[in-house]
Amino acid sequence: MRAAPLLLLLAACATAPKVAPKAEALDFTLPDTTGKSVSTKDFAGKVVLVDFWATWCKPCEASFPFYDAIAKKYGERGFEILAVSVDEEDADVAAFLEAKPVSFTVLRDPAGSIPERLNLQTMPTAVLLGRDGSVKHVHEGFFDEDRKAITKLVEAELGAE
Amino acid sequence: MRWIGALMLVGALGACAEVKAWQRGPLTHASMDPNDKCNLVNGEFVAHGLDVREGAKPGGTVAGGGCGCN
Predict the structure, then answer these.
(1) ipTM beyond 0.95?
(2) Beta strands A47-53; A37-39: pairing state
(3) Cβ separation of B21 and A56 shorter than 8 Å?
(4) I need a surface site. Which of A42, A75, A144, B48 has the fewest CB within 10 A?
(5) Residues A107, A101, B29, CA angle at the centre, nearest 5°?
(6) Looking at the complex, does the CB of residue B58 fall below 8 Å from at least one CB of chain A?
(7) What distance in Å separates the CA atoms of residue A64 and residue A153, rounded to the nearest whole number?
(8) Phi, then psi, of A108 in degrees rounded to 5
(9) pTM of the prediction?
(10) pLDDT tens across A46-90, in order?
(11) What are phi and psi of B17, to 5 degrees?
(12) What are phi and psi of A48, to 5 degrees?
């Protein structure tokens, strides 16, 4: 009985379960860096990697050259990357992209509405959508060894048609 | 005593505020880094604060007002 308050305290501090998004949660429209509305529906029939990132997130920074490379490599086969920035300030994103330009689409969600909907636990988190729009894989974080795994997943989806 | 314990428990539970993954930007600020030379605990900010408080020598390299905190 004496341990009950402690257990209650630990339960209150417990983290939420890992993200397991449904396809509907990835059906969204957000502005890109120029203010133009972009919808995930615009990429129907393609394999899409939706990456949630921020300029202050070091692993996100490390992932960008890799994402840029695979976006260029697999673009002609129907692969797209939508990188959703959750930065509060547009200026931070603009400065980041000026220093590290990318070929893929960067969207803005300063309020974190989509991460909130997905109950995102980690930055960055990448969600791979199949050509049918279904969620094929959720990848949390970004480490050097993840490049191979993500490439394999993308190739498997592109080749599955 | 039980009431005090209950109050402490409620207070402790209230301390478990959750910072969402996408809201952690401010936590990555240089001032939150204990190894950063400008950090609030042991860096130039402290030196600046001491300079202002002691008033014995000119200020350091940190910008800001006389309170030593900005």
Answers:
(1) no
(2) unpaired
(3) no
(4) A144
(5) 70
(6) no
(7) 17
(8) -120, 130
(9) 0.75
(10) 999 999 999 999 999 999 999 999 999 999 999 999 999 999 999
(11) -70, 135
(12) -120, 130
